[in-house]
Write a structure and sequence with these properties.
The chain is of the alpha+beta class and 511 residues long. It has helices at residues 93-97, 104-110, 117-132, 138-163, 170-176, 178-185, 192-195, 200-206, 213-233, 253-287, 320-324, 344-349, 420-430, 470-501; strands at residues 8-10, 16-18, 52-57, 67-74, 79-87, 242-243, 246-247, 301-303, 332-335, 338-341, 351-354, 408-411, 439-441, 445-450, 458-463. Helix 2 runs antiparallel to helix 3.
Length: 511
């Protein structure tokens, strides 16, 4: 069974339907938040001990957007007993887009973020293609793929070098855990021959913000990623050439040649980053195995896949399971570490959004949902994104009621995680990849071959970790750079083939 909580079952032909006999299949029960009761001293005590303290981070500067985290700490037990994340700003892009020409979504949604604006534009293009019945030509699909590869090479160095990396630097660790810096001074780096740092202390120095070698190199490689985007999208951020049916960029032989040149630079950076984060993760876990529990979460992940096969993608919902299964990074649902489905229709059926603790009114009280099924007749929830109406209701903050401008997305009523490492995880568990000489899924990991550039040709092997935690997320992101580069190399070679054969169209005209 694909679903555990929603009453959705499948007949012998694989068609989904709601289970019979369930009066209200999408009923929601709102549980009372578990408030922490402060313990008191024994009889005769004048006051309770000052064990509890509120502690907040506002803003969290690692993300684009106004995010805050509020916790209640038990100082005696040294643990957090309550935690809430808060989106502090109403964005409202879906409200801005209502009543506009659908094509405006491509440009307006991009403004939601200066780092991932191309992603918003791309998915808006995909949605409009599906609604309008427009299919881009094969080279248009590949150009879009290459643009998204470039965008990832803006995002990953930014995270590993400038946002998350400094947490493991000498300047930070010497304050939080000075004993680790002392240990690092005498610990040799296993991959010193790749990244050039003799000891872990040298590597941690390189992670220092503003001055460290890795920090500064990462800043430079974000520029390489933007150049790659620019070659395919004309400009970045906020590309203006993504259109329904492909791209409107003026593509030339020089565009592909320059892209290929920049991708070559990325190969060496990927080899170094994988070695770097192997050494960082292994050092911290060996020094203190408790780091395995930092950021540990159940292995529940959702991916819709990315990078379409130009020979399979036809922009129709009717065939989405087929072209989704041909994406170079597969869609999928992972629950408790097990791959449950790779079908886009299954993923779509299970998606819901809730606003019980958000500054919005519940839209489901306003009558029957807009859609009870998808175009194939599969049931979808009144809380599905297709049925959502954004109805802002600002009010005072109350952690037992409403406290955030974010909603609570769920799949099959379960909390899910997404992330670039999830793409690899899903593809690895499925044990299949599209034809790609640089990438192989092995069932328990991925084998990635990066061609020679300044460094020799290198084979990297990423293995699915036993725990999904902070260190493994960062290690996974480092390997995801190599995963992305392998897909980028395959796409650019295919683009050259189409270009040489005279199939140079990158967009489809429509009325």
């Amino acid at each position: 069974m694909c679903f555990r909580n929603l009453p959705i079952e499948f007949d012998g032909a694989g068609n989904a339907r709601l289970r019979e006999g369930v009066a209200d299949p999408y009923a929601v029960t709102v549980a009372e938040p578990k408030g922490y009761v402060r313990p008191h001293d024994g009889p005769g005590a004048m006051v309770a001990p000052p064990r509890l303290r509120d502690w907040s981070i506002d803003p969290v500067t690692r993300v684009a957007g106004a995010l805050a985290v509020h916790t209640v700490l038990d100082l005696e037990k040294r643990e957090a007993v309550e935690a809430h994340s808060q989106a502090m700003l109403f964005r409202g892009y879906e409200v801005i887009l209502k009543g506009r020409d659908p094509r405006d979504a491509i440009d307006i949604s991009s403004r939601a973020c200066g780092v991932c604006g191309g992603v918003h534009s791309t998915v808006s293009s995909l949605a409009i293609e599906q609604a309008f019945g427009i299919c881009p030509p094969p080279l248009g699909v590949l150009v879009r793929n290459l643009g998204e590869v470039g965008e990832m090479f803006y995002d990953h160095p930014l995270h590993l070098g400038l946002l998350a990396g400094p947490d493991y630097s000498t300047s930070i660790v010497s304050v939080t855990n000075p004993e680790l810096v002392t240990r690092a001074e005498s610990t040799r780096c296993p991959h010193a021959d790749v990244h050039g740092f003799a000891t872990m202390k040298d590597l941690m120095d390189a992670l220092n913000p503003l001055t460290g070698k890795i920090y500064l190199e990462s800043l430079e490689y974000t520029r390489v990623g933007r150049i790659m985007c620019m070659q395919m999208y004309g400009k970045y951020p906020h590309p203006s050439t993504l259109v329904p049916g492909g791209v409107s960029t003026t593509i030339s032989t020089s565009s592909f040649n320059e892209y290929y040149t920049q991708l070559g630079k990325i190969f060496d950076y990927c080899k170094v980053m994988a070695a770097t984060w192997d050494d960082i993760a292994d050092f911290f876990l060996e020094a203190n195995p408790a780091y395995e529990q930092v950021g540990a979460r159940p292995t529940n992940m959702i991916q819709t896949g990315i990078w379409d096969d130009p020979e399979a993608y036809d922009a129709t919902y009717a065939n989405c399971n087929e072209w989704g299964d041909r994406r170079w990074a597969l869609p999928g649902i992972i629950l408790d570490g097990e791959l449950r489905t790779t079908r886009l229709t299954d993923i779509n059926m299970g998606i819901e959004e809730f606003v019980e603790h958000s500054y919005y009114d519940d839209w489901t009280t306003n009558g029957a949902p807009r859609f009870a099924t998808d175009p194939l007749g599969n049931p979808i929830s009144p809380y599905h994104a297709w049925n959502k109406e954004t109805i802002p209701r600002p009010e005072g903050k109350n952690f037992k009621e409403k406290y955030s401008w974010d909603c609570a997305p769920r799949w099959d009523r379960q909390v899910m995680e997404s992330g670039t490492y999830g793409r690899m995880w899903t593809t690895a568990l499925a044990a299949r990849t599209q034809d790609n000489p640089f990438l192989e899924a092995t069932g328990d990991g991925l084998r990635i071959v990066l061609p020679r550039h300044g460094l020799p040709e290198t084979e990297l092997n990423w293995k699915i970790p036993r725990t999904l935690n902070a260190l493994e997320r960062n290690r996974g992101r480092a390997y995801a750079m190599a995963f992305t580069a392998a897909i980028g190399m395959n796409c650019i070679l295919k683009a050259f083939e189409y270009w040489r054969s005279g199939e140079t169209a990158v967009s489809t005209t429509y009325k």
